[in-house]
Amino acid sequence: MTNSAIWLEWLLEGMHRVQWALLRAMHGLGLVGDVDGQAAWPWGWRLAGENLLIDQAEARRFAISLLVLAGVMLLLFAAIWWRRGRPWLWGASALALVLAPWPSAAVLFTHAHPTSFHAASEPLTDHAIASGARLYAAQCVQCHGADGKGQGTLAAVQPVWPPNFASPLLWRRADGDLLWAVRHGVQGRDGRQTMTGFGESLSLRETWELLHYLRALAAGELLRATGNWSQPVRLPDMALRCHDAGKRRLGDFQAQRVLLTTTDPQKLLPDPRALTVWLPARSSASAPPDSVDCVVTSVMDAREAVALINGHATLDETQWLTDRSGWLRARNARGAAAWSDDDLLCKSPLADQTTTAGAAAGAVAGDDQLTRIIRSLDAEPVRFVKGGRVH
Ligand code: HEC
Q: Full-prediction pTM beyond 0.70?
Protein backbone atom coordinates (compact mmCIF):
# COMPACT_ATOMS: atom_id res chain seq x y z
CA MET A 1 0.00 0.00 0.00
CA THR A 2 1.35 3.37 -0.94
CA ASN A 3 1.79 6.18 1.56
CA SER A 4 -0.95 8.23 -0.04
CA ALA A 5 -3.44 5.57 0.99
CA ILE A 6 -2.66 5.67 4.71
CA TRP A 7 -5.71 7.89 5.25
CA LEU A 8 -7.80 5.18 3.59
CA GLU A 9 -6.47 2.55 5.94
CA TRP A 10 -7.40 4.77 8.91
CA LEU A 11 -10.84 5.33 7.48
CA LEU A 12 -11.50 1.61 6.94
CA GLU A 13 -10.07 0.61 10.27
CA GLY A 14 -12.14 3.34 11.95
CA MET A 15 -15.32 2.20 10.21
CA HIS A 16 -14.69 -1.35 11.34
CA ARG A 17 -13.97 -0.34 14.92
CA VAL A 18 -17.02 1.87 15.26
CA GLN A 19 -19.32 -0.89 14.04
CA TRP A 20 -17.59 -3.49 16.17
CA ALA A 21 -17.80 -1.28 19.28
CA LEU A 22 -21.51 -0.66 18.60
CA LEU A 23 -22.12 -4.40 18.30
CA ARG A 24 -20.21 -5.12 21.54
CA ALA A 25 -22.11 -2.39 23.39
CA MET A 26 -25.50 -3.64 22.19
CA HIS A 27 -24.53 -7.20 23.05
CA GLY A 28 -23.40 -6.06 26.50
CA LEU A 29 -26.77 -4.36 27.08
CA GLY A 30 -28.61 -7.51 25.98
CA LEU A 31 -30.11 -5.79 22.92
CA VAL A 32 -28.73 -8.39 20.50
CA GLY A 33 -28.38 -12.13 20.94
CA ASP A 34 -25.91 -14.73 19.72
CA VAL A 35 -25.73 -16.64 16.49
CA ASP A 36 -23.13 -19.31 15.76
CA GLY A 37 -21.48 -18.57 19.11
CA GLN A 38 -20.87 -14.82 18.67
CA ALA A 39 -22.84 -11.57 18.87
CA ALA A 40 -25.32 -11.25 16.01
CA TRP A 41 -25.25 -8.14 13.83
CA PRO A 42 -28.83 -6.86 14.03
CA TRP A 43 -29.17 -5.01 10.71
CA GLY A 44 -29.45 -6.09 7.11
CA TRP A 45 -26.69 -3.69 6.05
CA ARG A 46 -23.28 -2.53 7.22
CA LEU A 47 -20.61 -0.08 6.12
CA ALA A 48 -18.70 -1.62 3.21
CA GLY A 49 -15.00 -1.07 3.74
CA GLU A 50 -14.30 -3.53 0.94
CA ASN A 51 -16.18 -1.34 -1.57
CA LEU A 52 -14.34 1.81 -0.51
CA LEU A 53 -11.06 -0.06 -0.87
CA ILE A 54 -11.88 -0.55 -4.55
CA ASP A 55 -13.64 2.76 -5.20
CA GLN A 56 -11.20 5.23 -3.69
CA ALA A 57 -12.95 8.28 -5.18
CA GLU A 58 -16.02 7.44 -3.10
CA ALA A 59 -13.80 6.79 -0.09
CA ARG A 60 -12.34 10.28 -0.47
CA ARG A 61 -15.83 11.79 -0.64
CA PHE A 62 -16.76 9.92 2.53
CA ALA A 63 -13.63 11.08 4.36
CA ILE A 64 -14.28 14.71 3.38
CA SER A 65 -17.92 14.43 4.44
CA LEU A 66 -16.84 13.10 7.82
CA LEU A 67 -14.52 16.08 8.22
CA VAL A 68 -17.40 18.41 7.30
CA LEU A 69 -19.56 16.62 9.87
CA ALA A 70 -16.89 17.16 12.53
CA GLY A 71 -16.75 20.87 11.58
CA VAL A 72 -20.54 21.12 11.85
CA MET A 73 -20.40 19.61 15.34
CA LEU A 74 -17.92 22.34 16.33
CA LEU A 75 -20.19 25.03 14.88
CA LEU A 76 -23.20 23.69 16.76
CA PHE A 77 -21.11 23.53 19.90
CA ALA A 78 -20.10 27.17 19.40
CA ALA A 79 -23.77 28.08 18.93
CA ILE A 80 -24.45 27.10 22.55
CA TRP A 81 -22.37 30.06 23.74
CA TRP A 82 -22.59 32.60 20.94
CA ARG A 83 -26.27 33.46 21.15
CA ARG A 84 -26.26 36.36 18.71
CA GLY A 85 -24.41 34.45 16.02
CA ARG A 86 -26.66 31.44 16.39
CA PRO A 87 -28.72 31.93 13.19
CA TRP A 88 -25.49 32.29 11.21
CA LEU A 89 -23.94 29.20 12.72
CA TRP A 90 -27.07 27.17 12.11
CA GLY A 91 -27.30 28.41 8.56
CA ALA A 92 -23.63 27.63 7.90
CA SER A 93 -24.05 24.14 9.41
CA ALA A 94 -27.06 23.35 7.27
CA LEU A 95 -25.30 24.61 4.15
CA ALA A 96 -22.16 22.60 4.92
CA LEU A 97 -24.22 19.44 5.38
CA VAL A 98 -26.00 19.97 2.10
CA LEU A 99 -22.81 20.77 0.20
CA ALA A 100 -20.73 17.92 1.71
CA PRO A 101 -19.74 15.40 -1.00
CA TRP A 102 -21.67 12.48 0.47
CA PRO A 103 -20.72 9.16 -1.14
CA SER A 104 -23.33 7.04 -2.86
CA ALA A 105 -25.17 4.83 -0.41
CA ALA A 106 -24.84 1.89 -2.79
CA VAL A 107 -21.06 2.00 -2.38
CA LEU A 108 -20.97 2.96 1.30
CA PHE A 109 -23.34 0.23 2.48
CA THR A 110 -23.54 -3.42 1.70
CA HIS A 111 -25.83 -6.28 2.54
CA ALA A 112 -24.96 -7.72 5.96
CA HIS A 113 -25.69 -10.98 7.76
CA PRO A 114 -26.01 -11.75 11.48
CA THR A 115 -22.52 -13.30 11.29
CA SER A 116 -20.90 -10.44 9.31
CA PHE A 117 -18.66 -9.45 12.22
CA HIS A 118 -17.74 -12.96 13.32
CA ALA A 119 -14.08 -13.86 13.67
CA ALA A 120 -12.90 -17.41 12.96
CA SER A 121 -13.51 -19.43 16.12
CA GLU A 122 -11.42 -22.31 14.79
CA PRO A 123 -7.67 -21.53 14.71
CA LEU A 124 -5.78 -21.63 11.41
CA THR A 125 -3.79 -24.85 11.80
CA ASP A 126 -2.34 -27.40 9.40
CA HIS A 127 -4.88 -29.84 10.81
CA ALA A 128 -7.82 -27.51 10.10
CA ILE A 129 -6.67 -27.10 6.49
CA ALA A 130 -6.18 -30.85 6.00
CA SER A 131 -9.57 -31.56 7.47
CA GLY A 132 -11.11 -28.80 5.33
CA ALA A 133 -9.59 -30.49 2.28
CA ARG A 134 -11.47 -33.72 3.03
CA LEU A 135 -14.75 -31.87 3.59
CA TYR A 136 -14.26 -29.96 0.34
CA ALA A 137 -13.62 -33.14 -1.63
CA ALA A 138 -16.79 -34.65 -0.17
CA GLN A 139 -19.24 -31.74 -0.40
CA CYS A 140 -18.02 -28.86 -2.55
CA VAL A 141 -15.76 -30.15 -5.31
CA GLN A 142 -18.60 -31.22 -7.64
CA CYS A 143 -19.47 -27.57 -8.23
CA HIS A 144 -16.37 -25.59 -7.27
CA GLY A 145 -13.79 -27.93 -8.89
CA ALA A 146 -10.59 -29.42 -7.47
CA ASP A 147 -8.66 -26.21 -8.09
CA GLY A 148 -11.49 -23.98 -6.81
CA LYS A 149 -11.92 -22.28 -10.16
CA GLY A 150 -15.57 -23.21 -10.43
CA GLN A 151 -15.23 -25.92 -13.08
CA GLY A 152 -16.74 -28.84 -11.17
CA THR A 153 -18.81 -31.48 -12.96
CA LEU A 154 -22.09 -29.92 -11.74
CA ALA A 155 -21.01 -26.31 -12.33
CA ALA A 156 -22.76 -25.91 -15.66
CA VAL A 157 -26.20 -26.85 -14.31
CA GLN A 158 -26.20 -24.30 -11.48
CA PRO A 159 -28.38 -21.15 -11.67
CA VAL A 160 -25.19 -19.11 -11.90
CA TRP A 161 -21.61 -20.21 -12.51
CA PRO A 162 -19.70 -20.89 -9.25
CA PRO A 163 -17.07 -18.19 -8.63
CA ASN A 164 -13.36 -18.51 -9.24
CA PHE A 165 -11.72 -18.81 -5.82
CA ALA A 166 -8.26 -18.48 -7.38
CA SER A 167 -8.80 -14.72 -7.35
CA PRO A 168 -8.86 -12.02 -4.65
CA LEU A 169 -12.56 -12.83 -4.03
CA LEU A 170 -12.09 -14.62 -0.70
CA TRP A 171 -9.91 -11.80 0.65
CA ARG A 172 -12.47 -9.17 -0.24
CA ARG A 173 -15.14 -10.93 1.79
CA ALA A 174 -15.34 -10.64 5.57
CA ASP A 175 -14.83 -14.02 7.28
CA GLY A 176 -18.29 -13.81 8.81
CA ASP A 177 -19.97 -13.22 5.45
CA LEU A 178 -18.27 -16.30 4.00
CA LEU A 179 -19.39 -18.26 7.05
CA TRP A 180 -22.96 -17.19 6.38
CA ALA A 181 -22.74 -18.09 2.69
CA VAL A 182 -21.61 -21.64 3.43
CA ARG A 183 -24.03 -22.24 6.30
CA HIS A 184 -27.11 -20.51 4.92
CA GLY A 185 -26.52 -20.43 1.19
CA VAL A 186 -26.16 -17.64 -1.33
CA GLN A 187 -28.92 -15.62 -2.98
CA GLY A 188 -28.60 -13.97 -6.36
CA ARG A 189 -29.65 -10.36 -7.00
CA ASP A 190 -33.17 -11.47 -7.83
CA GLY A 191 -33.45 -13.22 -4.45
CA ARG A 192 -33.21 -16.68 -6.01
CA GLN A 193 -31.12 -19.24 -4.11
CA THR A 194 -27.96 -19.78 -6.16
CA MET A 195 -26.17 -22.07 -3.69
CA THR A 196 -27.89 -24.05 -0.96
CA GLY A 197 -26.65 -23.74 2.63
CA PHE A 198 -24.68 -26.51 4.36
CA GLY A 199 -25.63 -25.56 7.94
CA GLU A 200 -27.36 -28.92 8.40
CA SER A 201 -24.54 -31.13 7.19
CA LEU A 202 -21.56 -29.16 8.53
CA SER A 203 -20.76 -28.22 12.12
CA LEU A 204 -19.58 -24.69 12.90
CA ARG A 205 -16.08 -26.03 13.33
CA GLU A 206 -16.15 -27.81 9.98
CA THR A 207 -17.35 -24.63 8.28
CA TRP A 208 -14.38 -22.65 9.59
CA GLU A 209 -12.06 -25.49 8.57
CA LEU A 210 -13.48 -25.30 5.06
CA LEU A 211 -12.92 -21.55 4.92
CA HIS A 212 -9.32 -21.98 6.09
CA TYR A 213 -8.88 -24.61 3.39
CA LEU A 214 -10.44 -22.41 0.70
CA ARG A 215 -8.08 -19.50 1.43
CA ALA A 216 -5.08 -21.87 1.40
CA LEU A 217 -6.25 -23.37 -1.90
CA ALA A 218 -6.78 -19.90 -3.38
CA ALA A 219 -3.35 -18.75 -2.16
CA GLY A 220 -1.67 -21.73 -3.83
CA GLU A 221 -3.52 -21.25 -7.12
CA LEU A 222 -2.69 -17.53 -7.16
CA LEU A 223 0.95 -18.28 -6.43
CA ARG A 224 1.05 -20.82 -9.22
CA ALA A 225 -0.56 -18.41 -11.67
CA THR A 226 1.28 -15.19 -10.82
CA GLY A 227 4.38 -16.15 -8.83
CA ASN A 228 3.42 -13.88 -5.93
CA TRP A 229 0.57 -12.75 -3.74
CA SER A 230 -1.20 -9.44 -3.72
CA GLN A 231 -3.14 -10.76 -0.71
CA PRO A 232 -1.26 -11.65 2.44
CA VAL A 233 -1.21 -15.31 3.47
CA ARG A 234 -0.55 -16.68 6.93
CA LEU A 235 1.59 -19.69 7.82
CA PRO A 236 -0.77 -22.13 9.59
CA ASP A 237 -0.02 -23.26 13.12
CA MET A 238 1.56 -26.74 13.46
CA ALA A 239 2.75 -29.11 16.19
CA LEU A 240 6.48 -29.04 17.02
CA ARG A 241 9.21 -30.59 19.11
CA CYS A 242 11.76 -27.97 20.18
CA HIS A 243 14.94 -27.67 22.21
CA ASP A 244 12.80 -25.53 24.50
CA ALA A 245 10.48 -28.29 25.75
CA GLY A 246 7.90 -25.73 26.92
CA LYS A 247 7.06 -24.83 23.33
CA ARG A 248 4.95 -27.37 21.50
CA ARG A 249 3.31 -25.39 18.75
CA LEU A 250 4.37 -22.70 16.31
CA GLY A 251 1.75 -20.45 17.91
CA ASP A 252 3.64 -20.64 21.24
CA PHE A 253 6.32 -18.45 19.70
CA GLN A 254 4.85 -14.97 19.67
CA ALA A 255 6.14 -12.24 17.39
CA GLN A 256 9.06 -14.23 16.00
CA ARG A 257 10.10 -14.59 12.40
CA VAL A 258 9.84 -18.20 11.32
CA LEU A 259 12.05 -19.90 8.78
CA LEU A 260 10.32 -23.14 7.81
CA THR A 261 12.64 -25.42 5.88
CA THR A 262 12.61 -28.83 4.21
CA THR A 263 16.37 -28.75 3.61
CA ASP A 264 18.37 -31.45 5.38
CA PRO A 265 19.41 -29.81 8.70
CA GLN A 266 22.94 -31.16 8.25
CA LYS A 267 23.34 -28.61 5.45
CA LEU A 268 22.11 -25.76 7.65
CA LEU A 269 23.85 -23.52 10.15
CA PRO A 270 22.03 -22.22 13.23
CA ASP A 271 20.45 -18.88 12.31
CA PRO A 272 19.64 -16.37 15.07
CA ARG A 273 17.59 -14.15 12.77
CA ALA A 274 14.55 -16.42 12.76
CA LEU A 275 13.05 -19.39 14.56
CA THR A 276 14.24 -22.24 12.33
CA VAL A 277 11.70 -25.02 11.97
CA TRP A 278 12.49 -28.18 10.04
CA LEU A 279 9.67 -29.84 8.12
CA PRO A 280 10.96 -33.40 7.56
CA ALA A 281 9.62 -35.89 5.04
CA ARG A 282 8.56 -38.32 7.76
CA SER A 283 7.85 -37.81 11.43
CA SER A 284 10.24 -39.34 13.92
CA ALA A 285 10.48 -39.34 17.68
CA SER A 286 14.02 -37.97 17.85
CA ALA A 287 15.00 -34.56 19.18
CA PRO A 288 15.49 -31.68 16.72
CA PRO A 289 19.01 -31.51 15.23
CA ASP A 290 21.27 -28.79 16.66
CA SER A 291 21.17 -26.61 13.56
CA VAL A 292 17.42 -25.96 13.90
CA ASP A 293 15.23 -24.76 16.80
CA CYS A 294 12.32 -27.12 16.27
CA VAL A 295 11.13 -30.01 14.15
CA VAL A 296 7.51 -30.36 12.95
CA THR A 297 5.73 -33.35 14.45
CA SER A 298 2.35 -33.00 12.67
CA VAL A 299 4.24 -33.88 9.47
CA MET A 300 1.38 -35.28 7.36
CA ASP A 301 -1.01 -32.36 7.95
CA ALA A 302 1.77 -29.76 7.76
CA ARG A 303 3.05 -31.08 4.43
CA GLU A 304 -0.45 -31.18 3.02
CA ALA A 305 -1.21 -27.61 4.15
CA VAL A 306 2.13 -26.18 3.03
CA ALA A 307 1.93 -27.99 -0.34
CA LEU A 308 -1.48 -26.44 -0.91
CA ILE A 309 -0.37 -22.90 -0.05
CA ASN A 310 2.74 -23.48 -2.13
CA GLY A 311 0.64 -24.15 -5.22
CA HIS A 312 1.75 -27.80 -5.27
CA ALA A 313 5.28 -26.84 -6.29
CA THR A 314 7.82 -29.26 -4.88
CA LEU A 315 8.37 -29.06 -1.14
CA ASP A 316 11.95 -30.31 -1.37
CA GLU A 317 14.87 -28.00 -0.62
CA THR A 318 12.55 -25.09 0.08
CA GLN A 319 12.50 -22.48 2.81
CA TRP A 320 9.64 -20.14 3.70
CA LEU A 321 10.09 -17.01 5.76
CA THR A 322 7.38 -15.26 7.79
CA ASP A 323 7.50 -11.79 9.26
CA ARG A 324 6.98 -11.20 12.99
CA SER A 325 3.20 -11.19 12.55
CA GLY A 326 3.11 -14.66 10.99
CA TRP A 327 2.55 -13.61 7.36
CA LEU A 328 4.38 -15.70 4.75
CA ARG A 329 6.56 -13.21 2.93
CA ALA A 330 9.37 -15.00 1.09
CA ARG A 331 10.21 -18.40 -0.37
CA ASN A 332 13.55 -19.78 -1.48
CA ALA A 333 13.34 -23.01 -3.45
CA ARG A 334 17.09 -23.40 -3.97
CA GLY A 335 17.92 -25.28 -0.80
CA ALA A 336 20.59 -23.72 1.35
CA ALA A 337 21.63 -21.33 -1.45
CA ALA A 338 21.53 -17.58 -0.90
CA TRP A 339 18.26 -15.66 -0.99
CA SER A 340 17.44 -13.11 -3.65
CA ASP A 341 14.98 -10.21 -3.88
CA ASP A 342 12.93 -12.30 -6.30
CA ASP A 343 12.04 -14.57 -3.41
CA LEU A 344 9.64 -12.00 -1.95
CA LEU A 345 6.12 -13.39 -2.18
CA CYS A 346 4.09 -10.25 -1.57
CA LYS A 347 4.43 -7.54 -4.09
CA SER A 348 3.21 -3.99 -3.66
CA PRO A 349 4.55 -0.69 -5.05
CA LEU A 350 5.94 0.36 -1.68
CA ALA A 351 7.50 -3.04 -1.05
CA ASP A 352 9.50 -2.58 -4.24
CA GLN A 353 10.68 0.82 -3.07
CA THR A 354 11.69 -0.42 0.35
CA THR A 355 13.52 -3.32 -1.21
CA THR A 356 15.63 -0.88 -3.13
CA ALA A 357 16.10 1.25 -0.02
CA GLY A 358 16.93 -1.91 1.92
CA ALA A 359 19.39 -2.89 -0.78
CA ALA A 360 21.19 0.41 -0.39
CA ALA A 361 21.28 0.06 3.40
CA GLY A 362 22.28 -3.59 3.14
CA ALA A 363 25.38 -2.75 1.18
CA VAL A 364 26.84 -1.36 4.39
CA ALA A 365 28.44 -3.69 6.95
CA GLY A 366 28.47 -6.76 4.76
CA ASP A 367 24.85 -7.81 5.34
CA ASP A 368 23.70 -10.77 3.29
CA GLN A 369 20.62 -11.21 1.17
CA LEU A 370 18.46 -12.74 3.90
CA THR A 371 19.12 -9.76 6.16
CA ARG A 372 18.10 -7.47 3.33
CA ILE A 373 14.87 -9.38 2.85
CA ILE A 374 14.17 -9.29 6.57
CA ARG A 375 14.74 -5.54 6.56
CA SER A 376 12.31 -4.99 3.76
CA LEU A 377 9.68 -7.12 5.57
CA ASP A 378 10.14 -5.11 8.75
CA ALA A 379 9.93 -1.85 6.83
CA GLU A 380 6.71 -2.83 5.10
CA PRO A 381 4.38 -4.68 7.49
CA VAL A 382 1.09 -6.14 6.34
CA ARG A 383 -1.64 -3.67 7.19
CA PHE A 384 -4.97 -4.68 8.56
CA VAL A 385 -8.14 -3.77 6.75
CA LYS A 386 -11.33 -5.67 7.47
CA GLY A 387 -12.85 -7.21 4.39
CA GLY A 388 -9.49 -7.08 2.63
CA ARG A 389 -5.99 -6.94 4.05
CA VAL A 390 -3.41 -5.03 2.13
CA HIS A 391 0.34 -5.01 2.02
C1 HEC B 1 -24.44 -27.61 -6.12
C2 HEC B 1 -23.32 -26.74 -6.42
C3 HEC B 1 -22.52 -26.18 -5.26
C4 HEC B 1 -22.00 -26.87 -4.19
C5 HEC B 1 -22.11 -28.36 -3.88
C6 HEC B 1 -21.28 -25.89 -3.40
N7 HEC B 1 -21.37 -24.65 -3.98
FE8 HEC B 1 -20.55 -22.95 -3.26
N9 HEC B 1 -21.36 -21.88 -4.78
C10 HEC B 1 -22.09 -22.44 -5.81
C11 HEC B 1 -22.52 -21.38 -6.69
C12 HEC B 1 -23.37 -21.56 -7.95
C13 HEC B 1 -22.03 -20.17 -6.16
C14 HEC B 1 -22.22 -18.76 -6.71
C15 HEC B 1 -23.40 -18.12 -6.04
C16 HEC B 1 -23.63 -16.69 -6.46
O17 HEC B 1 -22.64 -15.99 -6.76
O18 HEC B 1 -24.79 -16.24 -6.46
C19 HEC B 1 -21.29 -20.54 -4.96
C20 HEC B 1 -20.63 -19.63 -4.15
C21 HEC B 1 -19.85 -19.98 -3.06
C22 HEC B 1 -19.09 -19.05 -2.26
C23 HEC B 1 -18.97 -17.56 -2.50
C24 HEC B 1 -19.92 -16.79 -1.68
C25 HEC B 1 -19.76 -15.32 -1.89
O26 HEC B 1 -19.90 -14.60 -0.92
O27 HEC B 1 -19.49 -14.90 -3.03
C28 HEC B 1 -18.45 -19.79 -1.30
C29 HEC B 1 -17.51 -19.25 -0.21
C30 HEC B 1 -18.83 -21.15 -1.48
N31 HEC B 1 -19.67 -21.23 -2.57
C32 HEC B 1 -18.38 -22.17 -0.70
C33 HEC B 1 -18.82 -23.49 -0.83
C34 HEC B 1 -18.41 -24.55 0.06
C35 HEC B 1 -17.45 -24.39 1.23
C36 HEC B 1 -19.04 -25.67 -0.36
C37 HEC B 1 -18.98 -27.07 0.25
C38 HEC B 1 -19.46 -27.18 1.60
C39 HEC B 1 -19.83 -25.31 -1.53
N40 HEC B 1 -19.67 -23.97 -1.77
C41 HEC B 1 -20.61 -26.20 -2.24
C42 HEC B 1 -22.42 -23.76 -6.00
C43 HEC B 1 -22.11 -24.77 -5.11
A: yes
